[in-house]
Design brief:
Distance between the termini: 34 Å
Number of helices: 1
Helix content: 10-25%
Radius of gyration: 18 Å
Largest sheet: 7 strands, antiparallel
């Protein structure tokens, strides 16, 4: 009887731990229910490459802006679906730069926010080694985490080319 109780407790702990995080991107695979889009101000869409350990984002030169974005379902025009991720406190990404020193902006967006770049984004300067970046959802003040459509975006700005790698995106309670 004690053994059965112990196994039941372990199973319950495993379920609770699994609920502490919502995986969005694991390596080069999006989890079920998510899709990805890519674009620039000049409509270049060929700079996202699937690699064995994640994705390589090779932002092209001579653009004003570029973005890779993970959406709830396929990217669509409004009205858009929304996902309630309000139980989580953090957006967590694993990223690195191609050589180090690359600048990228990280953001999220609710299903009612316009596609005009006005969403709150956090600037990061990446090193050449993999690093985990943790963002409190409260930093993205205009995004309603109960109705997220873009669950993660990496935005580039300016005319210089840059290479960034990403291999993990998740939401976490801790």
């Amino acid at each position: 009887m004690k053994r059965r109780l112990f196994i039941g407790v372990l199973a319950t702990v495993g379920i609770v731990l699994a609920q502490d995080a919502k995986e969005v991107l694991v390596g080069n695979k999006l989890t079920e229910g998510f899709d990805m889009g890519v674009n620039t101000d000049k409509n270049q869409t060929d700079w996202l490459k699937d690699e064995e350990s994640g994705f390589r984002l090779s932002y092209p030169a001579r653009q004003k802006w570029g973005a890779v974005f993970i959406t709830v379902g396929p990217p669509v025009d409004p009205p858009r679906p929304g996902l309630d991720l309000s139980r989580y406190k953090y957006l967590v990404l694993e990223m690195r730069g191609g050589v180090g020193g690359e600048k990228v902006y990280v953001g999220i967006k609710s299903n009612a926010q316009p596609d005009n770049g006005s969403e709150v984004k956090v600037e990061e300067t990446l090193g050449s080694e993999w690093q985990t970046y943790r963002y409190p959802l409260a930093r993205f003040v205009r995004a309603d985490s109960a109705r997220l459509y873009v669950v993660a975006e990496l935005v580039f700005s300016g005319g210089e080319a840059a290479t960034v790698y990403v291999r993990s995106v998740r939401y976490s309670v801790k």
